[in-house]
Amino acid sequence: MNDLRGIRIGFFGTPDFALESLKVLKDNFAQIEFVATQSPKPSGRGQKVNFSVVHRWSKKNNINVIIPKNMKERDFFSRIEQKKLDFIIVVAYGSLLSEKILNLPKYMSLNVHASLLPRWRGAAPIQRSIINGDQITGVSIMKVDKELDAGPVILKRKVRILSNDNSGKIHNKLSNLGAHLLIDAIKKICSGKYSFENQDSSKVTYAKKIKKIETKINWENSADHNQKIIRAFNPWPGAWTYMNQKKRFRIKILESEIVESSSSDFKNAKPGFCNDSLLVKCNDKLIQIKKIQKEGKKPMTSSEFINGYKPASCLLD
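The structure corresponding to this sequence follows.
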């Protein structure tokens, strides 16, 4: 089959990672019967209610959007049962689906997951892979099971994590790769030319949700660890610290690199000492801040920050 014409799909997804799969399904002429996404949530200073990117894109493209309040609602089940779906596709939806819903499609329910399962099941596989120092990650297409990310895998592809990759870059690579791999999986299933690979339970690791406390940089840690934290939390939620100038304020460090320095500035300095060129001492080596964001301001390069704020040597904490 050349495309997905006539294949009836129900799509469950919410953030940017899900949107890429939805776009590629549409590009391949899949018959998208509905898109289910999470309820809009207030955000920002004004607590303005924002619909998900999947919701906004679906409305713009005249696709029926459903925001289920409760997956056990009888009305919700009957609405999607009437669609006579071939597949349910789940990509970063944000809630588990009941077995009753997962068993509705003619073929099966599929999930696009941003790791090489069974490694990094759970909510934050991209961030955890970077923090852990993994050199390889990837994307898996699996049959959705009642247990979180535990279903048999149909297809997977590897991606190398480069030393300058952050979560944003890996996210974009995997969302694009996963979307096209999903199309391949659907075609294989429809033709009957596919097989399952059961996950090895002895190799399972979990990518727990990111906690706020993890995003604060501890300068007592090694430069290597802090560099991973900065990469893992860029662009979201951002690795941060306090800068003590005339006033104490919070900064996010968006880009940095580990450097060697023989500068006398750091000979007897404590971890967290930052000179006027934004070179910071960690427990062992130094980190050069390259991109920074003061709280409430736009991101800027280190040179822009230095020219604008003319920071004196200080302690970051």
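The chain has two domains: 8-207, 212-315.
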